[in-house]
Each structure stands twice: as C-alpha cells, then as structure tokens.
Input
Amino acid sequence: MRLAVLFIVLGMPALLWSQSVGVNTPTPDPSAVLDVSSVEKGVLLPRLTTAQRDNIAAPADGLLIYNITTHCFNFWNGSKWIEFCASVPECSAPPQSTPSHNAPLCVGQSLTLNASAVTGATYVWTRPDGTTTTGSSLNIPGVTKADSGTYTLRTWALGCYSDPATAHVLVQDTPWRQMTAFPGNSRIHATAFTIGAKGYIGSGATAWCGGTARKDIWSFDPSGSGGNGTWTNETTYPGNGASMTFSFVLNDRLYMGAGFAACGTWYTDVREWDPVGGVWTSKTAFPAGRGASFYNVNIGNMGYWGMGEQISTCTSQKDLYRFDPTASAGAGSWTVTAAAPAGFVGRHFAVAFVIGGKLYVGYGHNTTGCPGTTTNLNTFYEYDPGTNGWTAMSNAGGPPAGPQYAYFATGGYGYVIASTGTVYRFNPAAGGTWTTLICAYPGSSAATSQGQAFVVGGKAYVVNTNNGQVFEFTP
Output
C-alpha cells in the first residue's frame, strides 16, 4: 500500500507537466504549456531596471523581463540581453489652422468662426462649454452671454491632431431697448431737445423740398406705459412750419425757430415756449435765413446755433452764434462768437454736442453755390466759451465723413450713430479719441434725415421720425 501511494505522488509532476495548464480557462490550448485567459487583465512579467537586470546571475537562454528603464521587453539570447521594442511610427501632426471670427458681438447677433485652409484636414471645434463640432466654419445664431469664452480649433489628418489654436469671443448685453413708437406724422429733419424729465420731438417736413411742414411738438416720458414710454402731443409751434430748425433749452424753456420750408424759403423767426404755462413768446429773430444745422446746444444760460446753409448764396456757413435770453429787455440777442480757426470749413448737417461745458462740432458736408459742389467732411472741433476759442480735435477712428444719423452726449462722452448704424463714442480727453461700440444701433433704418436723439436721466432716446421707431440707449 505504501509503495502504491509513493508511486502516485512521485508520478504527479510528470502527469501535470505533460499537459497544458490553463488559468481562467478549462480548455487550455494544447500547443501551450501555459494558457492564461482574461478579458479584463494582462500578464505582468517581472519588472526590473537595467541595473537590476544586469545583476541576474547566469540568466537562462530566453529569460524574459520588462525593463522599466528603457520601457522595453528584454530577453537573454544566451550571450547578451536583447531589447524588444515594437516599432510604432511617430504621428505626423497636420499644420495648425488659424481661427477668425466676427466677435465681439451683442446678445442676439450671429457668431461666425472660420478656419484657415489646411489641405486634407478635418477641422474640429471645441466650444467654451466643451461640446465639439466639425467643419471649416462654426455658426451660432442668436448668441447669448454663455457663448462668450475660448473656442479651440484643431485639425485632424491620418490619425493625428494638430496643436490647438484658440479664439477668444466676447458677447455682451445690448445697451438698446425698443420703446413706445413715436405716434406723430412721418417727417424728416425734425428737431429734438430735453426739458426736465421729458424728451421732445418737433417740426420737420414730409419731404426735403415741396413737402408739408410740421408744426406739432411731442413730449416723451420714459417712465410711462410701464417703463416703455408715453408720447403726448404737447403744443403747436405758432411760427412758420419748417424743417431743419434750431432748438435749445434755457431755464427749462424752449427756444426754437428759423429753418427751411418750401423750396428756397428760409425763416429767421424765433419763439420761446414755457411748458408750464404753455405760452409761446416771440424773441429776437436770427440774423440770417438759414437752416440745416445742429440742434439742442446750450452751455450754461446761453444757447448756441450757427453754421448750416445760407439761403442767399446756397453756401455752407462756419460762423457760430450765441443767444442770451436776458438781453434786450428779455427779447434776447444774438452775438457771433470767435471766428472759427484756419482750415475750418463751413458745413451743414453737422454733429454737435456739449461735454463738460464745451461744444464739440464737426462732420456734415460743405456746399458752395446754387447749384454747387457738395463735399463730405470729417473734421471735428472743440469750442470753449470760457476762452472763446477753438481747438481742432482728432477724427481718427471716428465716423465716416458726411452727415450722420443721430448724435447725443451723456456720461461725459459724445455718441454719433452713422447711417450704417455703427455707433461711435467720443472721449474729449487728450485731444479726443473715438471708439466703435460693439453693439450697433438696432433700428431698421438709418437715413441721415430721419434720426433725432435726446437724453433723459442719463439715457439716450433715438427716434426715427419716419417709421416711428424709438430705442433707449443705456451707456
């Protein structure tokens, strides 16, 4: 019995090693001594540094290890260690593409990003929120603030990605809000002004020449109709109906007059209106028949008007008049200020606004003769009533030459809306600088004859007197 047991034990190794051994498989491959099966794990061989490998005494022929110094499998061929590294070809990255875009944008506008061309490549965009899309361009209509951020562009070809290129996109809230429409009859070349907490639109005509002149004056209360504004027909101008009249406000009273009526008819009459009593009073007439100048310019207790087009010569003028309402026993008087500087060209349809007690005026166009030559202008000047002197200001980066759609000043800056709808901001410091705002004027029309603006409570209200659109601008 003991001999039989001893025979069985001694014979087991021979039985075991004469068969294949399986790990995680009941049916090892008969060609393999050891068959390891797994779909979750691998076989981990001994991991040695080169120094540790070289310290192995009398390595057997075919001994296999993983060299953690060179990150390669090594085997002993009987005389030396052989590195066994798979030859993996280096990925050849395609050229980088450069992204371009039309930002900065306002909320609601459409963002377009374009990739510069890379032959044979696929373009992969990653948005600020991490989502990806492919294509040579990326278009996002109706952007929101969430679309601001960094966009990453990679090109992909033959299994390889390029280095990333980035584009930084800014989307800001719009400063514009549409208000209650102007209900008055359609007109062009109206005038605008502010008294207290209300803005006003008045005068104008249905056409440049031969149209019906308007004499109605409307007030706008921005706080009415739940903050959308309310219009009220306040009064009727008692003088000659005209377009291109002047207007300014002194001591909460309106001074208005002059302007253009039928073809070739220019007026000089001036009226004062007291909105408290609703009374109109005749004042000293303007010295010459003219119109097509700026509006709503007062500095201190004086009103200013001038330039424009002179009827007798059909020529743009460059003089500036100051009106003192207390002179001539309350009838008021007109005085010519200091002569414009050398190089100043007469103009009509000029831009004008007051910042810090100084007048800034320019642009418009110059006409000489009846009929004559018209030239668009882009020069810009400062008039200081304290010194009665003029200074040329920068026009670099400013609006295009010629008449503009609307203009106003608030918060220490002047603003000009071009006929394209582009908004330019003027900073009078250090000779004047111009900045183009991100958010353009959103109105449907920007014809230069149709836009007027007034400021109430630090906010501007731009009125298209032709289609009635009104937009509030918050700087």
In short: The first helix runs from residue 2 to 17. Confidence is low (pLDDT under 50) at residues 1-17. The first strand starts at residue 21 and ends at 23.
